[in-house]
What we know:
By secondary structure, the chain is of the alpha/beta class. It has helices spanning 17-26, 75-87; strands at 9-14, 30-34, 38-43, 46-52, 68-72, 92-99, 107-113, 119-125.
Amino acid sequence: MRDTNKVFHLAIPCKDLDETVDFYEKLGCTLARRYDDRVTFNFFGDQVVCHLNPESVDERPKMYPRHYGITFTDKEEFDQALTFAQEQKLPFFQELMIRFKGKKEEHVTFFLIDPANNLLEFKYYHDIEMVY
Length: 132
């Protein structure tokens, strides 16, 4: 796996910094930095930077191919994330579902949608070998 000295970085558009901070903090992410044109978060150990760019917001987002998120290797942590999202009343784009049912790559997943229509997927594979 990756060494602890490496952090994945993702930059995405946002339309309003205040509502972006509110969403990601409710998700449990820590605000690392805020500037006039962007906010940076610790997103489950990785870095997500939301750049203020309202004209780049996708008004009709689709799950595939553009989304990002977390793949859990522990089912209990996945279940906790789902419960937390429900308790925080975060907006779901897709409720809990099973993908590839009955196949080796079967997994459970749900999608959240942030205020700029960026889609976040949270998933758990029953077979750890299918994570990659």
